[in-house]
Design a protein that fits this description.
With 329 residues, the chain is of the alpha/beta class. The protein is built from eleven helices and 14 strands.
Length: 329
């Protein structure tokens, strides 16, 4: 019998089983379930957003149907919650077990494998087929929280060096500015760059599935593994589909996690056929342009200073938001 574990006593039992299986227990999940036999917890698993995690099965119940029952329950729970794709991290040696449960392998590296239930990435790529262009293609991946003159500088520089430039905007809504606003500001900000194509990353580049620690902005033992899986997924499935052979990135003097991701990019991508080009960050009088600095200036209403940091389209949006907030208050 599979039931949701909501009582503290039930979660303590689950934690003991999870940690005995060599996994890290995490409180922040949307649902935790357990499979009982004769009143004894023999398996447990959880879902956090679209990611299945902390799947643990008693040794004597491994190799049978227990894991499949647990995963099926969590997949159905995730689908009822509105998730169109569901993911799981596991050890590479267990990847085949999940593939037998209708998961597809997205990427693997030395210590971990990332799999997706169903064929979401194939559907996402197919939906982008009209955007395919022949020739020398490059890519930048940006969050743009919000879009700045620094982003514009990076995109302009990259676009001059390639035939077509794919500008991937991080879709995950974990930033101050929601995705629809960030994408719109990017589209407005790159007008006039004829060979730039703006599109979203869906679940497959810097997302809650591929690189969740990116949004925490703090050191985490899992961060390096996630960086590598994210980049391997890009190199093995996304770049070949779009014909991307260059990826551009700006220097990162302020955020250690993003700097580590950029370093991992330089280490991993060239060996997989993707040249990584690093562009020096654009500067203004008081330092490099950063989205965090823009948010700081916007927060205190210093729009005169912002004119050096953001294009007119972003400035108009920020000033409009400020006016709206004053009206509401």
């Amino acid at each position: 019998m599979i039931v949701e574990l909501s009582l503290n006593s039930e979660r303590r039992q689950a934690r003991a089983l999870i940690e005995a299986s060599g996994l890290r227990f995490e409180d922040a999940v949307d649902v935790m379930v357990g499979l009982y036999e004769e009143g004894r917890l023999v398996a447990t698993g959880s879902r956090a957003g679209g990611v299945l995690k902390m799947l643990a099965v008693m040794p004597e119940h491994q190799g049978g149907s227990t894991l499949g029952e647990l995963v099926t329950e969590l997949v159905m729970n995730g689908q009822r919650a509105g998730h169109d794709s569901l993911f799981v991290y596991t050890k590479p040696e267990y990847a085949a077990t999940f593939q037998a449960l209708n998961f597809s392998l997205l990427a693997r590296q030395g210590k971990a494998a990332l799999l997706e239930y169903g064929s979401g990435i194939a559907r996402w790529l197919e939906s982008k087929r009209p955007l395919l262009r022949a020739g020398l293609n490059g890519a930048v991946v940006v969050n743009c929280n919000p879009f700045t003159n620094g982003h514009r500088y990076l995109i302009e520089r990259a676009a001059r060096e390639v035939g077509h430039l794919y500008v991937f905007v991080v879709r995950e809504d974990r930033s101050v500015f929601p995705f629809d606003v960030r994408r719109r500001l990017v589209e407005q900000g790159v007008r006039g760059i004829a060979n730039a194509v703006v599109l979203d990353t869906s679940h497959y580049i810097v997302s809650d599935a591929t690189f969740p620690t990116y949004f925490l902005k703090k050191e985490d033992p899992a961060a390096r593994i996630q960086m590598e899986l994210d980049l391997i997924l890009f190199a093995s499935k996304i770049a070949p589909f779009f014909g991307i052979t260059r990826r551009y990135v700006g220097t990162e003097p302020n955020d250690p996690l993003t700097a580590a991701y950029n370093q991992a990019m330089r280490e991993l991508l060239p060996g997989r056929g993707i040249d990584v080009r690093v562009v020096e960050r654009k500067r203004v009088a008081d330092g490099v342009i950063s989205a965090s600095r823009v948010r700081e200036l916007a927060g205190r209403g210093d729009f005169a200073a912002l004119a050096d940091y953001v294009p007119a389209t972003t400035l108009d949006y920020l000033m409009g938001q400020r006016t709206y907030q004053k009206t509401e208050s």
